[in-house]
């Protein structure tokens, strides 16, 4: 068998991980032949001859069979992937921000140029979510995908709820360990989870929803009183992404903190781990759990995509062609908890029904049913307020685990 | 797209489940056209015209594209599957006992007649273990697959350890609920787990080991004193199947009760659920969890195999062709607990090292290191004795979860 010759874009932690994993896997039949990086002068751990700063050296090389792209600049990633696909070169990518914004065009390009783009590593690192949604749950029985898709925010919440630390100390520790970026907003405001959810939904239900249309709320405004409220009730707060069918013809999706009870699978997804629950009409719930990020776990997921190319594997996007694809709706009610300071939240948010209200010198909160469309309409008004919002309970079925 | 025409063998709980699942899945493009059953006179829930008692009516029908075989008679299953493959008809099978005994021949037949045999439903029902080992973990980084593969025995142990019932009451309840057969030995003596482990190992490491060569010990001889011992130490006893690389060149495998500590993933696999931990060199541990048995979960797994056939999917058995496939060894030491009554266990079993010994009027036990080969050699001598044996701790790595 001929070795697959790989042109690699990016040699950060993930890129170096791929190099290591390919060396470890003696039966891989794949080798990196060229690596495109931004900086020519940076010291490198491997032979300088591998490196170039000119993308064309890879993109127009006739000897390269596959491009693996793991740079963290979404705009540059888009240009490289598009250009490769247009030239008929298959690509493995890990860039969720880029994929979430450009998937429809990239799917068209795959069809038009009869070429594959694989990206299992983009969602939940070493957990094979995309591949299983595409190949194993490749039918219309799927009802819901819900999970903890971001390791950094989960690490922070886990320090708070499993190790009784305060939020600021936990965030600082996550940064010290390299789990959270020095600008942690991507992880902590929920955007990383959002991008993964957009990609997952394409393979779960065959429908693409642009990230801007999806309600996303993070954990950066959490206060001690929110944490105390959760602890008193024996909940953990988790940052949860979910896509769920609310009827035969409709589904909804959002990213939001959630009060999670002990009976649920994701309750025990601690530290930097990811966990995904896949629920379907006949198989009930499947739970997949593993390391969602990090150099080697992500690299091993990329290895699976590289190996899949040896057998000419590509995503078929079969569900996009189902006759009765469900439609995205935000016309659903959620039960949410909103803790607020000075702002009177009831003047901003219209609740369908309020079930609890609490005021004190320390904090105020309200719990009630609210339309998801109302939350989306008031996104701007909620921003930069001393306010924390969390999904109070899973609303869509009683037996939810 | 033309509908796949299916000839079904067996119309028990699983067969009826497949019928239901295909009706529910509107995009399945597959239909059952003929069903072969043993009894012509039994009342049926669907139109009589579907049924035949003559296998040839399916096997020699030119209009049938795929055979789905879910009968519980392993000998008859073998004849049907072999005959279908020899005629070039692809097969989906759920019969683990048959597969575990005949896989090498059935793999040869697939190659010789260029035809597919899929059997994801045979191992862990709705959890996609085989497919992921074959496609996603299709490299040589895999170190271990370990799990709870049998729902009935796990249900019984879960009643004991999570609900404080006694063993006999739990067994009776499992039988009443239909989780355990009226002759429960297949589940409870570990053979069901063993057969699944044999199949899993073919796809995990590319090596077939005949079930007779593998140490298998069940839970039927468990006593109150064993349960009390575990409870005192805050362990649960679980029936665990595992295959694990013990060096670059060697692996071992066995099915045995194990004392499981709270820190391990499988500790929280309760009731009739299955859970599988996949450990690899770069991705660490993946945990997959779901319903391992039952009519609809198994049927939905069979549906995945049927759908896969629409894209001409077949197992490639790539790992069988690795140059450095590991070898099966029983020359490994385990740390086991052996509780015994009259029999002096030390006269039967040669321990390498004894670390604990306890004698009382109620019970006697010994804990120590023993060779797996010694356990295999003494299998007959251990049988029909008032004796219970359990893996005391995972021996192969300290950080085992």
Automatic annotation (TrEMBL), chains A, B:
Gene Ontology BP annotations: methionine biosynthetic process; threonine biosynthetic process
Keyword vocabulary terms for this entry: Amino-acid biosynthesis, Methionine biosynthesis, NADP, Oxidoreductase, Threonine biosynthesis
PROSITE patterns: HOMOSER_DHGENASE
GO MF annotation list: homoserine dehydrogenase activity; NADP binding
Pathways involved: Amino-acid biosynthesis; L-threonine biosynthesis; L-threonine from L-aspartate: step 3/5; Amino-acid biosynthesis; L-methionine biosynthesis via de novo pathway; L-homoserine from L-aspartate: step 3/3
Homoserine dehydrogenase catalytic domain segment(s): 128-307
Catalytic activity: L-homoserine + NADP(+) = L-aspartate 4-semialdehyde + NADPH + H(+)
Domain Aspartate/homoserine dehydrogenase NAD-binding: 10-119
Enzyme class per UniProt: oxidoreductase
EC number: 1.1.1.3
Listed Pfam families: Homoserine_dh, NAD_binding_3
Family, per entry: Belongs to the homoserine dehydrogenase family.
Protein name as catalogued: Homoserine dehydrogenase
């Amino acid at each position: 068998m001929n070795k697959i010759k790989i042109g690699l874009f990016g040699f950060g932690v993930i890129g170096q991980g791929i190099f290591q994993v390919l060396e470890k896997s003696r039966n891989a039949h794949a080798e990196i032949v060229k690596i495109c990086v931004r900086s020519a002068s940076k010291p490198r751990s491997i032979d300088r001859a591998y490196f170039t700063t000119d993308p064309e050296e890879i993109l127009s090389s006739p000897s390269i069979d596959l491009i693996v792209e793991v740079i963290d600049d979404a705009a540059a990633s888009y240009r490289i992937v598009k250009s490769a696909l247009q030239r008929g070169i298959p690509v493995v990518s890990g860039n969720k921000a880029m994929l979430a914004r450009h998937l429809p065009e990239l799917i068209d390009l795959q069809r038009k140029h009869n070429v594959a783009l694989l990206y299992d590593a983009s969602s939940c690192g070493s957990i094979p979510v995309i591949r299983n949604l595409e190949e194993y749950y490749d039918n219309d029985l799927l009802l819901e995908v819900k999970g903890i898709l971001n390791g950094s925010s989960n690490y922070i919440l886990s320090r708070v709820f499993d190790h009784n630390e305060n939020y600021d100390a936990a965030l600082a520790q996550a940064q010290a360990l390299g789990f959270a970026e020095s600008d942690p907003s991507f992880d902590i405001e929920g955007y990383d989870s959002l991008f993964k959810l957009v990609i997952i939904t394409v393979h779960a239900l065959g429908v693409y929803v642009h990230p801007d249309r999806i309600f996303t709320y993070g954990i950066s405004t959490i206060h001690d009183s929110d944490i105390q409220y959760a602890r008193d009730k024996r909940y953990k707060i988790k940052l949860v992404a979910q896509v769920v069918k609310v009827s035969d013809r409709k589904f909804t999706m959002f990213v939001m903190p959630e009060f999670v009870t002990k009976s649920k699978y994701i309750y025990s997804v601690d530290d930097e781990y990811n966990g995904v629950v896949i629920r379907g009409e006949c198989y009930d719930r499947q739970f997949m759990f593993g390391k969602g990020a990090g150099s080697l776990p992500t690299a091993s997921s990329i290895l699976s995509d590289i190996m899949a190319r040896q057998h000419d594997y590509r995503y078929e996007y079969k569900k996009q062609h189902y006759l009765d694809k469900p439609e995205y709706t935000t016309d659903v009610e959620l039960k949410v908890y909103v803790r607020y300071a000075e702002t009177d939240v009831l003047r901003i948010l219209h609740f369908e029904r309020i079930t609890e209200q609490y005021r004190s010198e320390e904090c105020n909160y309200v719990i009630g049913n609210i339309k998801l469309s109302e939350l989306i309409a008031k996104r701007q008004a909620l921003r930069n307020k001393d306010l924390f919002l969390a999904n109070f309970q899973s609303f869509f079925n009683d037996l939810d685990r």
